[in-house]
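Support request, please re-run this one:
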Amino acid sequence: MAFERQSEKAYQHLRQQLIGRFLPPGSRLKETHWAETLQINRGDVRQALARLFAEGLVVREGKGFLVREYSSRDIAEMLETRRLLEKGAAELVIERATPEDICELEEIHGHMITMAENHYEQGFDEADLRFHTVFVRAAHNDRLMELYHHANIMLTGPGSGAITKAGIRENLLDIAQDHKQIIDAIKAGDLPSLLKYLKY
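Re-run finished. Output below.
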């Protein structure tokens, strides 16, 4: 029970780091480091890594695990999968999103704005991942949510590519504005606009 909770904590944290591509490809995932970082025991970390290995997010080398490396084709296929699943979810979200779903999306959007204003790209990217997960969940279709989870859809790449802090800020604020338009389209029941701002 307590062990399971700590293992789940390790799993969720590491999965977010991997899906967000915040860890260098090919780097070793040291049990001692993550146990100290998350303040849990190594057995919990080991169990989490075993789950991530089963999901294909890490690879085994010897007795340990490495961050999986992805080819350009892998990334392209992830994007195709994301488009298909989120486009499929959109109509259901228009029909089924609850006030609580919309409120959660608005809270995440507010967090994105804060991260953008402070030039914090990783925090912004974490919020972006959460936004899209909540968006698909708002379709209220458990099978679809399960498919989305197991698709392991990642960010297209680390960082915004902007050179200056001002450039980073403006780039992130532009992305956040698109997310605001997504929320507005859901509120208005406007499927064409929703698809437009999902960029599909």
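The two ends are 43 Å apart (CA to CA). The chain has nine helices and two strands.
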